[in-house]
């Protein structure tokens, strides 16, 4: 953040005041921009090659794909001058791709584990002597239906905020996880339906789960 702010503010000064003090052939703005970019890129590369936590990988990818090219380089005071300078990405494509794969692998596992825990909690609730919650007057499991959908949606949204390509790849992966989760859900529900007919709230639980199917569709 400090490097980004410094680069943006300094280049704005160069564009507004310093550039016009030199003949055009000196390419003063281009020189400044390339030096700042090269230093920023070297620091980003150093960070990328160190041991990073998942949240750090996400933040670094956000800088590479989003903050740096869109927020900084498209700033109204700099865009026209920066369009003349071919600065490239903050990271080499191979290193960027490696981080993207790490992020996607981690996010896929996180969502998968989250869905599994959610189903375990839901199965535990079926065993309790408790009537399901009502949503808009209908029996429904807010935990299962809404939580699962929000988990997948928010994960996709975070990935899309990095880049469209990363978002599409994660969506493709999660579309494989969702059917697997739904199969586990169906098997658990069928088991409950067959073995728990004497449950005090057997019928409301059945209705709640049938109503969940509409959300999942």
TrEMBL record:
One GO-annotated biological process of the protein = exocytosis
GO molecular function list: SNARE binding
What is this protein's name?
Answer: TNAP2 protein
Q: What domain of life is recorded for the organism?
A: Eukaryota
Q: Which range is the signal sequence, renumbered to this chain?
A: none
Any one of the GO CC terms: exocyst
Q: Which gene encodes it?
A: Tnfaip2
